[in-house]
Hints:
Blueprint: E1 15-22, H1 28-45, E2 48-54, H2 61-72, E3 78-81
Parallel strand pairs: 1-2, 1-3
Amino acid sequence: MTFxxxxxxxxxxxxxxxxxxxxxxxxxxxxxxxxxxxxxYCQKYNYDFHVCRRPKNSIPGFWFKIEKTLQxxxxxxxxxxxxxxxxxxxxxxxxxx
Length: 97
């Protein structure tokens, strides 16, 4: 009896976690804490992490998020935006779960 096995190559999905705030925003101190939290999470799961800073006199913040996400989306399978005022609480759950 002969068995033939098809070789299957599984590539890991590329994840990106985006965060950011305004350059003139008053909570840059908060950003230092939350960005460190998100960076640690991304390191645990080998995700890319990118911090965006919206310049003064730029487009409104909600449009800036969409613009940055669309710029980076072609390079990743999954992109997630996380606002500056949020933390990742449960490090045991990955984005792919």
